[in-house]
């Protein structure tokens, strides 16, 4: 396959960025998207140009580091992570636009790499439990209803990639935050911090400068792990419950 790539190049957060056009040839349909970028970078290095900076780690679809907007879609045309997107999703001769996540809370570090530490600070605000866990407990030591366990596991699948923010027209982080809150709040181990968790994490999310949620649903559509939109409504109920309890104290 021969492709035309229009890639966002930006030296650092303070520099102006622009799209640069590159031609790549000999791309196998079985290559992953990141392998295709590796081919581009080898080509750039051999020609004495600076390679394109992009973020990645596991290349197995489990870490969420490979954050790219491809032809206007977070992670590209398939509902998967960029590292698991294969070039057979494109056609010979295609023009592909490749950009970083676009959100005020995700400043560009260089080229396609953005700083997603805002997510880390949201987690630090309340995404933990204080109950001592020690070694692995017996399987039935703490009974958890199956419905609650399924709900927690569904939300625990969030890998924090930020596709929800990149896809949201408002740059909101509600789906990510709700997944992390709902994962812990439904389990008995997370009960001691149930109210403070939702209040502190939502407050930190707002402090990071993410946009407001208008429930357009683009976040859930872009999520590679299928976190449902109802996660946000569940978090909103938790937040109202915690706010009312705090007001009575």
Q: Would you mind describing this structure in some detail?
A:
The chain is built from 8 helices and 7 strands. It is elongated and about 65 Å long. The strands form 2 sheets. A 5-stranded mixed beta sheet has the order 2-1-5-3-4. The protein has a two-stranded antiparallel sheet with strand order 6-7. The protein has helices at 33-46, 117-126, 146-156, 163-167, 174-185, 194-207, 218-222, 230-248; strands at residues 3-9, 18-24, 69-70, 73-74, 95-99, 108-110, 113-114. With 249 residues, the protein is an alpha+beta fold. 36% of the residues lie in helices and 11% in strands.
Number of helices: 8
Class by SSE composition = alpha+beta
Q: What composes the largest sheet?
A: 5 strands, mixed
End-to-end C-alpha gap: 65 Å
Which percent range fits the helix content? 25-40%
Oligomer classification: single chain
Strand content: 5-15%
- Write the element-wise H/E pattern from the N-terminal end onward: EEHEEEEEHHHHHHH
Q: How large is the radius of gyration?
A: 20 Å
- Biggest sheet: strand arrangement: 2-1-5-3-4
Mean pLDDT: 95
Shape: elongated
Tell me how many strands there are: 7
Poorly predicted spans:
none
How are the SSEs placed, and which strands pair?
Blueprint (H helix, E strand, L loop, with lengths): L2 E7 L8 E7 L8 H14 L22 E2 L2 E2 L20 E5 L8 E3 L2 E2 L2 H10 L19 H11 L6 H5 L6 H12 L8 H14 L10 H5 L7 H19 L1
Parallel strand pairs: 1-5
Antiparallel strand pairs: 1-2, 3-4, 3-5, 6-7
């Amino acid at each position: 396959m021969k492709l035309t790539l229009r890639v966002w190049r930006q030296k650092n957060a303070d520099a102006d960025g622009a799209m640069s056009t590159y031609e790549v040839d000999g791309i196998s349909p079985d290559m992953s998207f990141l392998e295709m970028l590796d081919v581009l970078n080898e080509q750039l290095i051999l020609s004495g140009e600076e390679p394109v900076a992009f973020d990645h780690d596991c290349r197995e679809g489990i870490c969420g580091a490979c954050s790219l907007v491809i032809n206007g879609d977070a992670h590209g045309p398939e509902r998967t992570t960029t590292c698991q997107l294969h070039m057979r999703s494109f056609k010979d001769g295609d023009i592909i636009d490749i950009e970083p996540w676009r959100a005020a809370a995700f400043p560009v570090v260089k080229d396609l790499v953005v700083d997603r530490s805002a997510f880390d600070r949201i987690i630090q605000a309340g995404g933990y439990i204080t109950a001592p866990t020690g070694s692995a407990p017996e399987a039935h030591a703490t009974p958890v209803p199956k419905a609650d366990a399924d709900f927690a596991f569904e939300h625990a699948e969030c890998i924090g990639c930020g596709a929800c923010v990149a896809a949201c027209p408002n740059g909101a982080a509600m789906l990510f935050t709700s997944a992390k809150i709902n994962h812990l709040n439904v389990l008995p181990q997370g009960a001691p911090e149930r109210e403070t968790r939702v209040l502190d994490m939502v407050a930190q999310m707002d402090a990071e400068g993410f946009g407001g949620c208008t429930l357009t649903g683009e976040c859930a559509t872009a999520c590679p792990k299928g976190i449902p939109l109802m996660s946000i409504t569940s978090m909103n109920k938790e937040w109202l419950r915690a706010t009312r309890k705090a007001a009575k104290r």
